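pinned: reference chain
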Amino acid sequence: MAAEFLSDDFLLCNATARTLYHEHAAKMPIYDYHCHLPVEQIASDHRFENLTQAWLYGDHYKWRAMRTNGVAERFCTGDATDYDKFIKWSETVPYCLRNPLYHWTHMELRRYFGIKKLLNPDTARQVYDRCSEMLRSPEFSVRNLLRKMNVRLVCTTQGPQDSLRAHQQIRADGFEIKVHTAFRPDKALAVDDTGAFNAWVNGLEKVCDKEIADLDSYLASLQDRHNYFHEDGCRLSDYGLETAYAADYTEREVKKIFEKIRAGGEPDAAERLKFKSAMMFELVSMDAEAGWVMQLHLGALRNVNTQMLKAIGRDCGFDSIGDFEIARPLARFLDRLDQAGRLPKTILYNLNPRDNAVMGTMIGNFQDGAIAGKMQFGSGWWFLDQKDGMTEQINVLSNMGLLSRFIGMLTDSRSFLSYPRHEYFRRILCALLGDDVEAGLLPRDMRLLGKVVEDVCFNNARDYFPMELD
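pinned: its structure tokens
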């Protein structure tokens, strides 16, 4: 008799791994310190009309697979009906074997809806109708979806101009799952497109209700927004950059560059790098002063398909791994902050797997001995949040740092149905530890190993971040 697909012991190939997962990992709550969930839907306790809305809207992972399978754009981001889009996804799923989407799709069907059937064109109608009916019920509102997965904290991602009204509404409602945000000021240094940058600064003027006449008033306005986020409970920042920026500059140079841009001039490559370097130092200094955690997501080559960028916009699945220089500028950036006494707790994420060892060794350069795990090598991100990527990140961290101090997995998703990714990570972690025990590489000390698993799954993140859970 064939083994059941996605059984209770999925990925757990020995008794030690099974014990670590079932008795330790599975019971731990989820501390989701980085995601892109639409917070307005949490505030309104939104209910989806159908499975397509919950599953396919905004999911560029699925869109990429569908396009690769020959599905026209109207079924991804276009005007096809929700049901027709779902049918095209169901036709694509059988071709996703060995892609993490195949595991995630069926884990999500099981964990949320109790569906064990494989999704394909033959089962699509039944799956769609059953899941859509459940999603329309109060028991499957977005807040209840979070409850079903034992989530304790969610941290969304918002820009400096966001009002944070949705977060405030959630707190006013007394929702027991804490919903915070990260401060994402990427646009504050995005001077490669001066027209978009100036429009963004004009928007900042309106939000702050003050004129931004020079660099000093610009930094003061950003500090105002940083303070506003802090007062609302924000305790971490997030920067999505190609690489770290650490060019030498003077204050006078940066002031002139800002004036040039605001006057409609185009900075050259050296000026853009100086401005970005200065802004990153100033923004992260704000983080350090406020006692925040800094996150650096490095290495994405974004929006490379010009035709599709013009047709459907940004962040629609036309991004890839970049091959930027990472090590030297990152070392200079962190060292500059450290010398100034402005290096906060830091999480480094890389997108190119060639940089795993760079990150694994870089964090060791700036551990200060005062805070356990101050510098973190973040979990596999984006194209690396799959079995091989997670395994390699865990192995590199184990070899070059302390796995026991790792703050674990995050969701980094726009979907409320994506929380089984935490289970996926936990099973992989337990499988690796179990394999080492069986090979004689680790002691069969289940108390010690169980504590490591529980800490990595939840406790370390809870203790690392200064956001309140109660």
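why pinned: The chain has a mean pLDDT of 97. Residues 15-38+149-464 form a domain with the TIM Barrel fold (CATH 3.20.20.140).
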